[in-house]
Amino acid sequence: MTAPVTIIGGDQTRPDSDSLGTLEVPADVYWGIHTARALENFPITRRPISVYPDLIRALARVKQAAARANREIGTLSAEKADIIDRVCEEIAAGKLHDQFVVGVIQGGAGTSTNMNANEVIANRGLELMGHERGDYRWLHPLDDVNRGQSTNDVYPTAVKLSVIFGLRRLLAEHSLLADAFARKGVEFSDIVKVGRTQLQDAVPMTLGQEFSGFAHTLMEDHDRLAETIPLLSEINLGATAIGTGITAHPQYAEAVCRHLADVAGIEAVTAKDLIEATSDVGVFMSVSGTLKRAAVKLSKICNDLRLLSSGPQSGLGEIFLPARQAGSSIMPGKVNPVIPEVVNQIAFSIVGADATVTAAAEAGQLQLNAFEPVIAHSILQSLAWLTNGCRTLRVNCIDGITANVQRLAAEMETSVSVVTALTPYIGYAASAALAHTALTSTASIADLVVENGYMTEEEVRRVLRPERLSGLVPTTGVIPIIRPSSTSGSAEPAGG
């Protein structure tokens, strides 16, 4: 029994058929009945797969490699293989992306995405061959474009490849952001400030050290993200439905892997166990978790930037972020840290996306995980957002940060935190007593040390030099401690 005829699109249509019946599809599109059914079935996100250009390019590269492999082993004519190859090259170059219209979230383990690609490639190929779209006698979306393939090996391979493309772009932006922080570390290298633990004054450091720390934490995440690319390069093309390779030529898996490595520019390797590789999505959990780590750590840095720039009068006010926009519809002159705030929100989204990937990975059954579309959507969105976030944070914020030198100098002049540097010389008890006195009076630590006879003025100045306070010139060796009861003599600081 055939399904009733349904018209999808405008007045000009062409008929298309599948095992369920016949539909009329718009005459001016390159997709066909399988895509049309997906449009009816999955009006969920209102976001087509083309919102992820990397996925479309990856699909094209997979289909291109398959055509080349099939031609090589003799399972597809040279004419058909060459036409498919030519169309895939067009798609990889950015053409026809508007024809990839199925929703990013879909049932069927990605079948609608695979069929969308098959139909677009077939119909564009027919056009190049001088035939009408939909006249599949000359080039068929399943028998030719999908030769030796299944959604279950095409889709996960395309998703892995698209994630690699996205990771490369993220790594480039991530590296530029780390460099921007490192440059600020150099710029602020001689500006001493109070370091804080648990939001309380701790010990002195330089503003440059603070920004250099931001740079190094980003560099660590850069390395962790890069380590996931080889994991993603293991593919299951040739597995077909469940990993047994049914319908694929015995030489196909090796050939298609080799051709994919060539056309996509990756170190592709065929999984040793195609049954396992077809059902396992552990690599996506690894990538998602690493993205979450990078996003969370970047968000923490943005928290610090918001704290350090808070005020400008009643907060810390140690740095100035570039003023990007008026911050209030009611408070004149208010400027908010909008760039760090948007990066915070990107991180929140990536944390949620990682939870989605985890749930989807757990929900797979037996020989296939049917929930790879939401895994793909979650990871590709996280990649795109984090890449954009790194860029806007660098260009619209980090590059324009300046230090509030006057405020930092004033803080250091009255800061009790320097007392920690004196404990090796006068002991913890004396230092604590002086800190208490300084906090309850207007006296400085340096003056109190001299007044109490613990050290001479020259010795205090030497110990409290900025480069020593910040650890740039470390103190080494045994340091004699002057006890509170002793007021004669002085301690000679070890080191320069």
From TrEMBL:
It comes from Homoserinimonas hongtaonis. The keyword Transcription does not apply. It comes from the Bacteria. Residues 419-469 form the Fumarase C C-terminal domain. Its EC number is 4.3.1.1. Gene3D superfamilies: Fumarase/aspartase (C-terminal domain), Fumarase/aspartase (Central domain), Fumarase/aspartase (N-terminal domain). The gene is aspA. GO terms for cellular component: cytosol. Residues 21-352 form the Fumarate lyase N-terminal domain. GO terms for molecular function: aspartate ammonia-lyase activity. PROSITE patterns: FUMARATE_LYASES. CDD domains: Aspartase. One of its GO terms (biological process) is aspartate metabolic process. NCBIfam families: PRK12273.1. Keywords: Lyase. This is Aspartate ammonia-lyase. InterPro entries: Aspartate_Ammonia-Lyase, Fumarase/histidase_N, Fumarase_C_C, Fumarate_lyase_CS, Fumarate_lyase_fam, Fumarate_lyase_N, L-Aspartase-like.
